[in-house]
C-alpha cells in the first residue's frame, strides 16, 4: 500500500475514486458544508441533497480507537454483506488481514481529522466474481464538536454476486490520506460516559437508504 498525502499540486485523477461520479458527488456536497473550513456537523446532512449517493452511503459512529459502528447504511451495502449493515462495525466489510490497516485509517479520519479514500479488492472464486471498489471517509462533528462521526460510501465495479463480500486494501495501490489540519474538540472526550445515539434518531435522517425487504 502506498500512502498519498494529498496537496493542491497533485492531480485529482491520481487519487482513489477520483473518476467515480458517486464519490465525487458525495465529497463535493461535504466540501460545500465546510463553513469557515470547519468539519461539517452531522446535523448539517440533508439526504435530499445526495439522493443518488444514498444507496452507497453510510454514517459511522466512533465507539473506540479505530472502531466505528454503522448507524446508517445504504441498500448497496446490504447487498454486499447480504444482511442489514446498520449496527455492524465497519470491519465487517473486510477480510481479517485487512482489519488492522483499516482501523488505523478510520482512526486517522476521526482524530486528525482527515479525508481517507481507499482502493478495495474482493478476491474472486468459483462461486463469486472478482470485485473492486473504493471506500471514501469524510469526518463529521457531533453536537459536542468532536469528530466522532464519518460520512462515507463504498462503491464497487461490477455485481457482487450471491455470496457475502469481504474486502482487502488493494495491494500496491495508493491510499488517499488528506489531513485537514484543524483544531477541533478532541475525540478523546468520548472516553468519558457519552450517550449513544439510537438508531431511531439516525434512521429517518437518511430515509430510503435501506430496503429491508
Give the strand content.
Answer: 25-35%
Mean pLDDT: 82
- The first-to-last residue Cα distance is 38 Å
Number of strands: 8
Main beta-sheet strand count, sense and barrel state? 8 strands, mixed
Rounded to an integer, what's the Rg over CA atoms?
Answer: 16 Å
Q: What is shown here, in short?
A:
This protein has 4 helices and 8 strands; from the N terminus they run βαββααβββββα. By secondary structure, it is an alpha+beta fold.
Write a structural description.
This protein has 213 residues and is α+β, with helices and mostly antiparallel strands. Helix content is 17%, strand content 25%. Strands 1, 2, 3, 4, 5, 6, 7 and 8 form an eight-stranded mixed sheet that branches. Strand 2 and strand 3 form a beta hairpin. It is globular.
Descriptive key words:
213 residues; alpha+beta; 17% helix
Write the layout of secondary structure elements.
Elements: E1 2-4, H1 21-32, E2 57-64, E3 67-73, H2 75-81, H3 99-111, E4 114-122, E5 131-140, E6 149-157, E7 168-169, E8 174-179, H4 199-202
Parallel strand pairs: 1-8
Antiparallel strand pairs: 2-3, 2-6, 4-5, 4-7, 4-8, 5-6
